[in-house]
Specification:
- This protein is an alpha/beta fold and 287 residues long.
- The model has no long low-confidence stretch (mean pLDDT 94).
- It has 12 helices and 8 strands.
- It has an 8-stranded parallel beta sheet.
- The protein has one domain: TIM Barrel (Alpha-Beta Barrel), CATH 3.20.20.
Protein backbone atom coordinates (compact mmCIF):
# COMPACT_ATOMS: atom_id res chain seq x y z
CA UNK A 1 0.00 0.00 0.00
CA UNK A 2 3.00 2.30 -0.41
CA UNK A 3 1.40 3.97 -3.43
CA UNK A 4 -1.68 5.01 -1.47
CA UNK A 5 -1.69 8.83 -1.19
CA UNK A 6 -3.77 8.76 2.00
CA UNK A 7 -4.27 6.61 5.08
CA UNK A 8 -7.44 4.66 5.73
CA UNK A 9 -8.39 2.62 8.75
CA UNK A 10 -10.88 1.59 11.41
CA UNK A 11 -11.08 2.61 15.07
CA UNK A 12 -9.81 -0.82 16.14
CA UNK A 13 -8.31 -3.99 14.73
CA UNK A 14 -9.54 -6.73 17.09
CA UNK A 15 -13.18 -7.34 16.20
CA UNK A 16 -14.06 -11.01 16.52
CA UNK A 17 -17.17 -10.52 14.36
CA UNK A 18 -14.85 -9.93 11.40
CA UNK A 19 -13.87 -13.62 11.42
CA UNK A 20 -14.98 -15.16 8.13
CA UNK A 21 -16.18 -11.78 6.81
CA UNK A 22 -12.84 -9.95 6.82
CA UNK A 23 -10.38 -12.07 8.81
CA UNK A 24 -9.93 -15.71 7.88
CA UNK A 25 -12.39 -18.10 9.55
CA UNK A 26 -9.60 -19.59 11.65
CA UNK A 27 -7.94 -16.34 12.72
CA UNK A 28 -6.84 -16.25 16.35
CA UNK A 29 -6.90 -12.97 18.34
CA UNK A 30 -3.10 -12.83 18.22
CA UNK A 31 -3.34 -12.80 14.40
CA UNK A 32 -5.98 -10.06 14.10
CA UNK A 33 -3.60 -7.11 13.78
CA UNK A 34 -1.37 -8.86 11.24
CA UNK A 35 -4.42 -9.67 9.09
CA UNK A 36 -5.89 -6.18 9.60
CA UNK A 37 -2.63 -4.62 8.35
CA UNK A 38 -2.77 -6.70 5.16
CA UNK A 39 -5.72 -4.54 4.07
CA UNK A 40 -5.66 -1.25 6.01
CA UNK A 41 -2.59 0.99 6.19
CA UNK A 42 -3.60 2.78 9.42
CA UNK A 43 -5.68 2.43 12.56
CA UNK A 44 -7.18 4.99 14.89
CA UNK A 45 -5.95 3.11 17.95
CA UNK A 46 -8.78 3.50 20.47
CA UNK A 47 -7.20 0.85 22.68
CA UNK A 48 -4.79 3.31 24.32
CA UNK A 49 -7.66 5.59 25.33
CA UNK A 50 -8.61 3.00 27.94
CA UNK A 51 -5.21 1.78 29.11
CA UNK A 52 -1.47 2.00 28.45
CA UNK A 53 -0.28 -1.20 26.73
CA UNK A 54 2.41 -3.45 28.14
CA UNK A 55 5.90 -3.57 26.65
CA UNK A 56 5.19 -7.08 25.38
CA UNK A 57 2.03 -5.90 23.64
CA UNK A 58 3.85 -3.02 21.92
CA UNK A 59 6.53 -5.44 20.73
CA UNK A 60 3.81 -7.69 19.28
CA UNK A 61 2.23 -4.72 17.47
CA UNK A 62 5.61 -3.93 15.94
CA UNK A 63 6.07 -7.50 14.75
CA UNK A 64 2.52 -7.66 13.34
CA UNK A 65 2.69 -4.64 11.03
CA UNK A 66 4.75 -3.61 8.00
CA UNK A 67 6.92 -0.51 8.28
CA UNK A 68 4.46 1.38 6.03
CA UNK A 69 1.64 0.94 8.58
CA UNK A 70 0.62 3.84 10.82
CA UNK A 71 -0.99 3.99 14.28
CA UNK A 72 -2.85 7.14 15.40
CA UNK A 73 -3.11 6.29 19.07
CA UNK A 74 -5.32 8.31 21.41
CA UNK A 75 -3.90 9.73 24.59
CA UNK A 76 -5.28 7.83 27.59
CA UNK A 77 -8.51 9.19 29.05
CA UNK A 78 -6.74 9.57 32.39
CA UNK A 79 -4.80 12.40 30.72
CA UNK A 80 -7.46 13.90 28.43
CA UNK A 81 -10.68 13.40 30.39
CA UNK A 82 -9.86 12.87 34.07
CA UNK A 83 -6.93 15.27 34.43
CA UNK A 84 -7.98 17.59 31.58
CA UNK A 85 -4.33 17.82 30.37
CA UNK A 86 -3.15 19.18 33.74
CA UNK A 87 -0.64 17.80 36.27
CA UNK A 88 0.02 14.78 34.06
CA UNK A 89 3.66 15.13 32.96
CA UNK A 90 4.62 11.75 34.40
CA UNK A 91 1.68 10.00 32.75
CA UNK A 92 2.46 11.60 29.36
CA UNK A 93 6.12 10.60 29.60
CA UNK A 94 5.21 7.02 30.50
CA UNK A 95 2.69 6.77 27.66
CA UNK A 96 5.02 8.09 24.95
CA UNK A 97 7.97 6.08 26.21
CA UNK A 98 5.92 2.88 26.15
CA UNK A 99 4.93 3.38 22.51
CA UNK A 100 8.30 4.71 21.32
CA UNK A 101 9.51 1.29 20.04
CA UNK A 102 6.94 1.59 17.22
CA UNK A 103 9.11 4.35 15.72
CA UNK A 104 7.99 5.50 12.28
CA UNK A 105 4.70 3.64 12.67
CA UNK A 106 3.58 6.32 15.15
CA UNK A 107 1.64 8.81 13.09
CA UNK A 108 0.05 11.71 14.89
CA UNK A 109 -1.10 11.00 18.46
CA UNK A 110 -4.72 12.01 18.93
CA UNK A 111 -5.89 14.15 21.86
CA UNK A 112 -9.65 13.65 22.16
CA UNK A 113 -11.14 16.13 24.62
CA UNK A 114 -14.48 15.82 26.44
CA UNK A 115 -17.40 18.16 25.89
CA UNK A 116 -16.62 19.76 29.24
CA UNK A 117 -13.27 21.03 27.91
CA UNK A 118 -14.36 24.57 27.06
CA UNK A 119 -12.70 27.47 25.20
CA UNK A 120 -11.80 28.89 28.62
CA UNK A 121 -9.25 26.06 28.80
CA UNK A 122 -7.43 26.89 25.56
CA UNK A 123 -4.46 28.05 27.61
CA UNK A 124 -4.28 24.61 29.18
CA UNK A 125 -4.29 22.99 25.74
CA UNK A 126 -1.56 25.37 24.54
CA UNK A 127 0.65 24.60 27.54
CA UNK A 128 0.09 20.86 27.06
CA UNK A 129 0.94 20.94 23.35
CA UNK A 130 4.05 23.08 23.82
CA UNK A 131 5.49 20.57 26.29
CA UNK A 132 5.04 17.53 24.05
CA UNK A 133 8.11 16.05 22.31
CA UNK A 134 8.61 17.53 18.86
CA UNK A 135 9.51 14.23 17.19
CA UNK A 136 5.84 13.20 17.03
CA UNK A 137 2.81 14.71 15.31
CA UNK A 138 -0.38 15.49 17.22
CA UNK A 139 -4.04 16.11 16.46
CA UNK A 140 -6.84 17.46 18.64
CA UNK A 141 -10.57 16.76 18.74
CA UNK A 142 -12.80 19.17 20.68
CA UNK A 143 -16.46 18.58 21.47
CA UNK A 144 -17.58 21.74 23.27
CA UNK A 145 -20.15 23.49 21.02
CA UNK A 146 -18.55 26.93 21.32
CA UNK A 147 -15.53 25.80 19.32
CA UNK A 148 -17.90 25.39 16.37
CA UNK A 149 -20.58 28.04 16.90
CA UNK A 150 -18.55 31.03 18.10
CA UNK A 151 -16.50 32.43 15.17
CA UNK A 152 -13.92 34.15 17.38
CA UNK A 153 -13.37 30.98 19.43
CA UNK A 154 -13.11 28.86 16.29
CA UNK A 155 -10.46 31.19 14.86
CA UNK A 156 -8.53 31.34 18.13
CA UNK A 157 -8.49 27.56 18.35
CA UNK A 158 -7.43 27.11 14.72
CA UNK A 159 -4.71 29.74 15.07
CA UNK A 160 -3.29 27.92 18.09
CA UNK A 161 -3.20 24.58 16.27
CA UNK A 162 -1.61 26.13 13.18
CA UNK A 163 1.06 27.83 15.25
CA UNK A 164 1.95 24.58 16.99
CA UNK A 165 1.63 22.37 13.89
CA UNK A 166 -1.21 20.24 15.27
CA UNK A 167 -4.03 18.89 13.11
CA UNK A 168 -7.68 19.53 13.87
CA UNK A 169 -9.76 16.34 13.90
CA UNK A 170 -12.95 16.56 11.81
CA UNK A 171 -15.84 14.64 13.38
CA UNK A 172 -18.68 13.53 11.10
CA UNK A 173 -21.64 12.02 12.97
CA UNK A 174 -24.53 12.99 10.67
CA UNK A 175 -24.73 9.52 9.07
CA UNK A 176 -25.23 7.62 12.32
CA UNK A 177 -27.70 10.18 13.65
CA UNK A 178 -29.70 9.80 10.43
CA UNK A 179 -30.27 6.12 11.26
CA UNK A 180 -33.27 4.99 13.33
CA UNK A 181 -32.20 3.56 16.68
CA UNK A 182 -33.46 0.06 15.97
CA UNK A 183 -30.61 -1.85 17.63
CA UNK A 184 -28.43 -1.49 20.69
CA UNK A 185 -25.20 -0.41 18.91
CA UNK A 186 -27.04 2.40 17.10
CA UNK A 187 -28.79 3.52 20.30
CA UNK A 188 -25.42 3.64 22.05
CA UNK A 189 -23.88 5.58 19.16
CA UNK A 190 -26.69 8.14 19.37
CA UNK A 191 -25.96 8.59 23.07
CA UNK A 192 -22.17 8.70 22.84
CA UNK A 193 -21.47 10.45 19.53
CA UNK A 194 -22.20 14.18 19.73
CA UNK A 195 -23.93 16.12 16.98
CA UNK A 196 -21.44 18.81 16.03
CA UNK A 197 -21.20 21.08 12.98
CA UNK A 198 -18.92 19.68 10.30
CA UNK A 199 -16.16 22.18 9.53
CA UNK A 200 -13.36 21.61 7.04
CA UNK A 201 -10.75 23.60 8.94
CA UNK A 202 -7.24 22.24 8.36
CA UNK A 203 -4.43 23.41 10.59
CA UNK A 204 -1.44 21.21 9.66
CA UNK A 205 -0.39 18.66 7.05
CA UNK A 206 -2.43 15.57 7.90
CA UNK A 207 -6.17 16.25 8.28
CA UNK A 208 -8.10 13.56 10.12
CA UNK A 209 -11.68 12.59 9.34
CA UNK A 210 -13.46 10.45 11.92
CA UNK A 211 -16.54 9.25 10.04
CA UNK A 212 -19.32 7.67 12.13
CA UNK A 213 -21.32 5.80 9.54
CA UNK A 214 -24.89 4.68 9.04
CA UNK A 215 -25.43 1.02 10.06
CA UNK A 216 -26.93 0.26 6.63
CA UNK A 217 -23.91 0.23 4.32
CA UNK A 218 -25.72 1.52 1.23
CA UNK A 219 -27.00 4.57 3.11
CA UNK A 220 -23.47 5.95 3.46
CA UNK A 221 -22.93 6.88 -0.19
CA UNK A 222 -24.52 10.33 0.13
CA UNK A 223 -21.89 11.26 2.75
CA UNK A 224 -18.91 9.19 1.63
CA UNK A 225 -18.85 10.47 -1.96
CA UNK A 226 -18.46 14.13 -0.88
CA UNK A 227 -15.82 13.08 1.65
CA UNK A 228 -13.94 11.26 -1.09
CA UNK A 229 -14.02 14.45 -3.16
CA UNK A 230 -12.71 16.40 -0.16
CA UNK A 231 -9.99 13.80 0.39
CA UNK A 232 -8.84 14.30 -3.21
CA UNK A 233 -8.79 18.07 -2.71
CA UNK A 234 -6.57 17.60 0.35
CA UNK A 235 -4.24 15.28 -1.55
CA UNK A 236 -4.01 17.72 -4.46
CA UNK A 237 -3.15 20.46 -1.96
CA UNK A 238 -0.15 18.42 -0.80
CA UNK A 239 -1.73 17.13 2.42
CA UNK A 240 -1.84 13.52 3.65
CA UNK A 241 -5.36 12.80 4.89
CA UNK A 242 -6.20 10.10 7.40
CA UNK A 243 -9.69 8.65 7.04
CA UNK A 244 -11.03 6.57 9.94
CA UNK A 245 -14.35 4.87 9.28
CA UNK A 246 -16.72 3.74 12.05
CA UNK A 247 -20.19 2.22 12.14
CA UNK A 248 -22.19 1.47 15.30
CA UNK A 249 -20.91 -2.12 15.52
CA UNK A 250 -17.96 -1.60 13.10
CA UNK A 251 -18.75 -4.83 11.23
CA UNK A 252 -19.29 -2.98 7.93
CA UNK A 253 -16.06 -0.92 8.08
CA UNK A 254 -13.86 -3.03 5.74
CA UNK A 255 -16.54 -2.94 3.04
CA UNK A 256 -17.03 0.81 3.57
CA UNK A 257 -13.29 1.34 3.19
CA UNK A 258 -13.29 -0.52 -0.10
CA UNK A 259 -16.24 1.58 -1.33
CA UNK A 260 -14.63 4.81 -0.18
CA UNK A 261 -11.41 4.01 -2.02
CA UNK A 262 -13.33 3.43 -5.26
CA UNK A 263 -14.85 6.91 -4.85
CA UNK A 264 -11.34 8.34 -4.44
CA UNK A 265 -10.09 6.40 -7.47
CA UNK A 266 -12.92 7.83 -9.60
CA UNK A 267 -11.63 11.33 -8.86
CA UNK A 268 -7.86 10.84 -8.77
CA UNK A 269 -5.65 8.85 -11.10
CA UNK A 270 -2.96 6.51 -9.81
CA UNK A 271 -4.74 5.48 -6.61
CA UNK A 272 -4.22 1.77 -6.01
CA UNK A 273 -6.97 -0.73 -5.26
CA UNK A 274 -7.14 -1.76 -1.64
CA UNK A 275 -5.85 -5.33 -1.13
CA UNK A 276 -8.13 -8.34 -0.84
CA UNK A 277 -9.66 -9.10 2.53
CA UNK A 278 -7.56 -11.69 4.38
CA UNK A 279 -10.48 -14.12 4.10
CA UNK A 280 -10.53 -13.87 0.32
CA UNK A 281 -8.46 -16.31 -1.63
CA UNK A 282 -7.35 -15.68 -5.21
CA UNK A 283 -10.35 -17.68 -6.36
CA UNK A 284 -12.71 -15.50 -4.33
CA UNK A 285 -13.57 -18.29 -1.90
CA UNK A 286 -13.50 -17.81 1.85
CA UNK A 287 -10.42 -19.24 3.50
Amino acid sequence: MESQPYYIGAPLWALKEWKGQFFTKTAKPAEFLQQYAQFFNAVEGNTTFYSVPSEKMVARWLESTPDTFRFSFKFPRTISHYQKLQHCDAEVTEFLKRLAPLGERLNNFMIQLPGSFSPAMLGVLEQFLRKLPKEYGYSVEVRHADFFTQPSVREQYNTLLRELGADRVIFESRPVHAAPALDQPTREAHERKPRLPVQLDTTAGAPILRYIGHPVAEENAKWLEPWAAQTVRWIEAGLTPRIFLHTPDNQQVPALARTFNTYVQARLGGVADLPSFPCESKSGLLL
